[in-house]
Amino acid sequence: MSTRDLSAPIGIYDSGVGGLSILAALKALLPAEQFYYVADSYHCPYGDRSATEIQGLALGVAHHMVDAGCKLIVVACNTISATSLPILRRRLPDIPIVGMVPAVKPAIEITRAGVVGVLATQATVRGALYLEVLQQYGGDTKVISQPCPGLVELIEAGKLDCEETVALISHCLTPIIKAGADVIVLGCSHYPFVRPLIERLAGPLVRIIEPSDAIALQTRRVLEREGLLTDAAPHSAGRTLFATSGAASVFDESVLRLTGIKSDAESLIWVSGSLRALSALPVASRCS
Ligand code: DGL
Questions:
Q1: Candidate from 12, 13, 14 with most ligand 1 atoms within 8 A of CB, to mutate
Q2: Cα separation of 145 and 115, whole Å?
Q3: How close is the Cα of 17 to the center of ligand 1, in Å?
Q4: Sign of CA dihedral 22, 23, 27, 28
Q5: How many H helices and E strands in the chain?
Q6: Tens digits of per-residue pLDDT, 222-265?
Q7: Which candidate, 66, 60, 70, 176, places its Cα nearest to that of 120?
């Protein structure tokens, strides 16, 4: 069992705004907890990067969250989970880490057609974790893994239902629909923000699965198991601090647009593979 401060925040990490879909589910299920949301917007999107590069970034952000005093880390990103969960857990054995993998198992349980589509990033569908899940649960079901390059960028830009987004999603759905899939898994935490569009384009006979609630439940299970549920004073319940390695004003606008939350994000900066709060840097570094 961890000896961490129970009133410490839960760290949530994504390349950008995608993890906000998980944050909403966490806040609903764990209203007494505090949260620290970190977006590595400077390097977003992660999905087209190599596994080695993503692992380096994931370690940098996770170390920053430990230094910030988080009691648990939720990797609210399929791409980071698919490529980096084992290395994160190996290198940071003292903090519980909850990851996410595309919800292929529940999709396989409910498909009647025997065909399931998975929308995810390139790095996720190539990732070891995803391939393991397919091997373990795939069975006779035909699983069509469809990368959607460019979709994360459109969501980051707030283009949730414009012509370009409609064209991109239609293109990505074509092989899935042609194969007769009746279930589609949203295998990237950004994609719930375009769920209405995906539903419209896929048609009423296709069910959509997204994992936000399952991740929140798993987080609660881990907090209980580790004896880490909060004992914080009620006045701090639900408080969320935001931080980004990108332009804070752009991030704040996206958060407001997508969730209605005023984030007032702290600026972070990468220095030799480490992520630091800009305000904590010596003045000389800030001026360089
Ligand atoms: N939200 C991330 C995921 O779940 C986005 C990945 C990216 O930055 O490309 O995969």
A1: 14
A2: 11
A3: 9
A4: negative
A5: 12, 11
A6: 999 999 999 777 777 889 999 999 999 999 999 999 999 999 99
A7: 176
